[in-house]
Amino acid sequence: MKYLQEFRDGEVAQRMVREIRHLVTRPWKIMEVCGGQTHSIIKNGIDQMLPEGVEMVHGPGCPVCVTPLSLIDKALAIAAQPGVIFCSFGDMLRVPGTEGDLFQVKGRGGDVRVVYSPLDAIDIAVKNPEKQVVFFGVGFETTAPANAMSVHLAKRRGLNNFSLLVSHVLVPPAIEAIMSSPGNQVQAFLAAGHVCSVMGFWEYPPLAEKFGIPIVVTGFEPLDLLEGIRRAVLQLERGEHRVENAYARIVTYAGNLEAQKLLAEVFEVTDRAWRGIGVIPQSGWRLRDAYRAFDAEERFALTGIRTVESPLCRAGDVLRGAIKPAECPAFGRECSPRHPLGATMVSSEGACAAYYNYGRVLSAEQLAGAGVSRG
Q1: How far, in Å, CA of 294 to CA of 165, rounded?
Q2: Global pTM value
Q3: Of 80, 281, 24, residue with least CA distance to 174
Q4: Given 92, 99, 219, 359, which is the most exposed site by the fewest CB atoms within 10 A?
């Protein structure tokens, strides 16, 4: 437990909060891009510990949440086909499509399986040569190397019954889209340590320079996050805009070069639709021509799918950081983990799930009206 507890020391956290409070002279809005960081912030009450002038804005860093509804609907259609074994991580099974989710497909007889690695899906394809095995490859740069390796192995082994349904998105284009959007108020970013452990942080200095924003790479434990916030506030107060690495025990500037080499071999950059946000240019990956035979979208060539978003769900506004989850009128009413309207309510990294699970049922305005202080 040592290496967990040393980053969860309450006395150290309080000392760090006092230091942040002494630094702040004006209001600042800082966005944590990663959904895992959002959950840690809400679970540990970090946002409520911060001084009044520092607001954490929750970004689109939940890959499950930003997977477009059209792709979820394709996944449901593929999984329902006879002769298909559809494999996924567990966090995708309750994500609602236009009509139902993967759990419901499984309940109707579809062969839907939870796996712990895309390489498990490769093993299933080897053992079931008469079946088409599809793995739902969702994620940011963090999960991409394992998905790339699965396709690489499938090609090398001649597994023509394996394919990948690709929904990979990239962090730097998302930051650029947020900073370029009308009405943006974000002034600094906490970059996700697990993404940077793969990709390094060499892509971020041009963004910091272009938009004049501090970007601090940090981890997920309470003290990691507080240190990232402290560094971001210090830069903001000084009028600086640099990239800092507050997660040096894991992240290097260059990142994992072998993983990046594999990614470049298997994937190419493409425009990608983000649920609730729209198409962000050059913000995702797709399989290169050499591996296109393993693309599930092309293999199944589905047509006639009618995608309809819920008119009550404001997940897109949550993902853009425009509102907090509890400010959505459907939050905790029409939308709950048992009956979700959007992925942000059921994903393990979704902001709405974090607010619901940890009791944040009041909006910022309601908290203020009730006389609850954040300082």
Answers
A1: 9
A2: 0.89
A3: 281
A4: 359
